[in-house]
Amino acid sequence: MSPTTAAPPPHILVFPYPAQGHTIPLLDLIHQLCLRNLTNITIITTPKNLPTLSPLLTVHPVIGTLVLPFPPHPDLPPGVENVKEIGNSGNLPIVVSLSKLHDPIVQWFKSHDNPPVALISDFFLGFTLQMAREMGIPRFTFFTSGAYLAAVADYLWHRPELAKGMKVVDFVDLPGSPSFTELRLPSTFRRYKPGDPDWEFFRNGMIANLLSYGCVFNSFEALEFEYLEYVKRKTKVYSVGPLSLLGLNREIREDLETGSGHDVFRWLDECPDGSVLYVCFGSQKLMNKNQMEAVASALEKSMTRFLWVVKTGTTREEEAGYGLVPGGFEERVGGRGLVIRGWAPQVQILSHRAVGGFLSHCGWNSVLESVVSGVMILGWPMEADQFVDARLLVDELGVGVRVCEGADTVPDSVELAGKIAESLSGDVVQERVRARGLKDKALVAVRDGGSSCTDLDGLAKEFFNFLRSS
Ligand code: UDP
Asked: Coiled-coil regions in this chain (predicted)?
């Protein structure tokens, strides 16, 4: 980290997107900026999302908040302020609702005696570019996904005609000219309805991301160098990840993960190195009855040790078999496997020496967490950015294998069992060896002089320069 400067810190405005996978990395970034003397920060939030900031505010009480009432939207049940309360279908109305905070934010800015000199906002909040322009300050887009996804999304949102249905989209402009079938495109684009006012608003926001003054990625050079270079052709790029390695995240997680000190660690301590498959499909995915049965059967047949995190549904969903572990399963696999219902301390589990593989949906945070733990991924991409992430891991970096695809797909349990057993079979598996190599590169990136640490220093310096020039 570069030496701190004696200059009074410039005021920075931060606007997170209210979804766990988006907020946590942005709070990690703010923590890093505070450590670089950028302590004059205001975070925009709404009343029900305020508690998610408390671990950061406890460590840095000097950080301010601008708490504004969550504007209503006809497609959102009253009281909903966070994606976790409604699922991914809530993204569009939540973005549109938050855009209604434009006027109160601009008013607050105008009445402030030391107004912010820059805005950092989540990539779902692209409308804030226009807001920053009205305030006369630069906007930095914070991407909680990688540069590969940013490049794919930018290409698509500039070509709305592709949403009308093409069997295969060729990204001729991107490094390696990849092709994705329609079903593997990011799901926000697949849901896009040309001409619908809310969707057109969202599309303009996505286009605004790479038109902003700069982009900050929770990624690192060794992970996706070519794609970061590609984005650099369009705007300034700061690649500052994996943020989960950078301090506060661990403290935040320990607070959030009520389960630390969990029995699970006593169980893992008893298992040989690299022998356990960790199974978790992100913070939201609720599996249907057939999927639950197929996964259970595959785990049983694989004869492998495992830890399976199962998201539980409402009583009604459970009655329909969602999130329901088949009867007798736990007794049959007793000792060899554990089922955790609800929330598991994923970061700590992945970093345990006993974990040798991660059956994952390939959400970006899970990808980074497996990378920093040197654990190979058994990818089952389902939606959102996950197909792009899986392609990076499996086809380009060779640190994982693909075992299934699709949100509603029911895998063949014999085939899945075979892939699990093979992947966990030890150091003969090349993907495991490469995954450990990538971990080392991630650790180097966040050390003093590493690419991510240097970019964090550069970002902090850039903010101090705005102070001088304002
Ligand atoms: N997570 C966790 N415990 C769980 C489920 C998820 O700690 O039981 C965390 C996980 O470590 C990751 C995030 O939730 O940081 C999930 O983000 P990701 O981008 O992988 O997937 P999403 O939930 O957005 O689909």
From this structure: none
The owner of tokens 């006369």 is 136
Q: Is the CB of 346 under 6 A from ligand 1?
A: yes
* Separation of alpha carbons 423 and 277, rounded Å: 9
Torsion of CA 389, 392, 393, 395, to 10 degrees: 130
The CA distance from 351 to 89, in Å, is: 32
Helix or strand or coil: residue 281?
coil
Q: Is the ipTM of this complex over 0.95?
A: yes
Which of 346, 348, 364 has most ligand 1 atoms within 8 Å of CB, for mutation? 346
Find the 363 Cα to ligand 1 centroid distance in Å: 7
Give per-residue pLDDT as tens, 174-202. Answer: 999 999 999 899 989 999 999 999 999 99
pLDDT digits (tens, 9 = 90+) for 357-384: 999 999 999 999 999 999 999 999 999 8
- According to the model, what pLDDT value does residue 251 have? 47
Which are the contacts of 156, defined by CB distance < 8 A and separation ≥ 6? Answer: 162, 163, 169, 185, 186, 189
What pLDDT score was predicted for residue 67?
98
Least Cα distance to 25 among 145, 178, 162 occurs for 145
Q: Given ligand 1 and candidates 343, 365, 367, 385, which is best to mutate, with the most ligand atoms within 8 Å of its CB?
A: 365
Burial code of 429-438, b = ≥16 C-beta within 10 A, e = fewer?
Answer: bebbebbeeb
DSSP letter string over 29-74?
Answer: HHHHHHHTT---EEEEE-GGGGGGGHHHHHH-TT-EEEE-PPPP-T
Q: State the chain's mean pLDDT as an integer.
A: 93
Which residue, judged by its Cα, is nearest atom 11 of ligand 1?
346
At residue 419, does pLDDT exceed 70? yes
CB atoms closer than 10 angstroms to residue 1: 14
Give the model confidence (pLDDT) of 25-52 as tens digits.
Answer: 999 999 999 999 999 999 999 999 999 9
